[in-house]
Structure formats: structure tokens, C-alpha cells
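Please describe the entry underneath.
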Amino acid sequence: MITTMAVAIAEKRIGRRGESVYSGRAKAVLERSYLAFRSSAWIVVLTGFLEPVMYLFSFGYGVGKLIGKIEVAPGHFVSYAAFIAPALLATSAMNGAIYDSTWNVFFKLRFDRVYQGMLATSMGPLDVALGEMAWALIRGLAYATAFMIIVGLLGLITTPVALLAIPAAVLIAFGFAAIGMAVTTYIKSFEQMNLINIVMLPMFLFSGSFYPLSIYPGWLQLFIKSLPLWHGVVLIRSVSLGIVNTSLIPHIIYFLVMILLGLFFTTKRLTQLFMR
């Protein structure tokens, strides 16, 4: 039955643009990720959600007692907890997406040989890329929704516009998942994989998550503004505080470009590796 459906889907793609890289079966990759989640991966997902919550309580309500109010706009002050909560949501979306699209993909690619098996069927590399990234999006959506519920219960949501932080977090997760998977397809060893953590930790600490960017010298501010997490923090912090205007468009475009580049290079690399 499943084989018949797969053949039928593949036959519908015959003659269509991109048939060599996409068969319309990305859903099968997503289903496999869900089955793996049900068996054991749910523990990792749970710990990924708890991390930003613990940061919120320890920094927002611990260190926050010593800091007081933070000015996020002229004349607009918020508590320290309300200041870091959106940044922690952006970081959570980033971390969840990066874990799924780097270490998870690395083992499937280099050790389990999962993608070789998939691409030996009617699936194309774009099916694999979309399926893996779709799972990262679902994980990002779950993190964002649960985190927003907790933030709401703590009284840190003051406007209905803050609910836009959920789709914003999904966009961030998509961008990081796309780039993360593209980079991972070029990595060949554990030593190279560790470079990802070397990049992620400083980006988390210096992207305006815990303090305003204005404390840095001008040259360093320019560098930080080129980092994807800074764009994510600004995007979610703005909508969380009800500040929605055209200034958010460049941040959205930034992540859309990440998504397109990630999909392009992931598809190209998987084609080079397994479809010669």
C-alpha cells in the first residue's frame, strides 16, 4: 500500500520542474522523525524546553532584583524579566533548530546512513531537506507555544500582539535549521562539529539577550548586528512589547534569505553526495 502510494506520487511529478530533486514525499521524512521522537528523543526535546525557563527564573527574577527596569524605547521601561524573556524564546528556537539540523543530521548522514536509504527510493534531496526542517519547525512551534504560556502566567505579556512571537520563533527556527543542515552536509568529523558550539555560545551571550546592545563600542555593535540571533532577538522582543512597524521587515527578510540559502545548499550538497 505504502509502496503503491509512493510510486503514484512519483509518477505525478514526472515532467514537472525540479523532479530530479523533489518527489513530493517530504512528509515521509517528517513521519520518521516523529516515530524517533516517540521512542526516545522526547527526553532531549524536554530538556531543550526547560533550559530557557530556568534562565528566565534565575536571571529574570534573580539578577533582575538587582537591576530594576530596562528602557527598551524612549520612555518605555520594562522589568528585567520582561526584557530577557523574548530573547530566551529566540535562543530556544535557535537551539532546538540547530540541534535537529546539525548533530541529528550528522549522525544520520555519516553513521546511520539514513539519507542514503531515503535517496535510494523515489525521494529527492529536497524532500529530505524539507522533511528534516519541517520537524525543526514543529519543535520550534512547540517550544514557543509552551514558553509563551509560562510567560503569560507570569504576567509578562501585556499586549495581544505578543502572540506574534510564536510565528516569529518558527521563522527563526526555520532559518537556523536551513543553515544548520546546509553546514552539516559539509562536516566530516566530530572535531569539526564542535566548531558549531564555539560559534553558538558567543552568539548567545553577545546578541543582546541579557543587556542592551548600547553597552558595546560602535564597531562591535556593527558586528553583532550581522549575527542571525541578534535579528531574532530584536524581532521577538519588538512583537512581545507590542512594537510592530516597518522596522521589523529587514529582520524578516534576513531569515527568509537564510531559509532560501540553506535549502539551496542542502539540496545541492545531498545531490553531490548521493545522486551521482
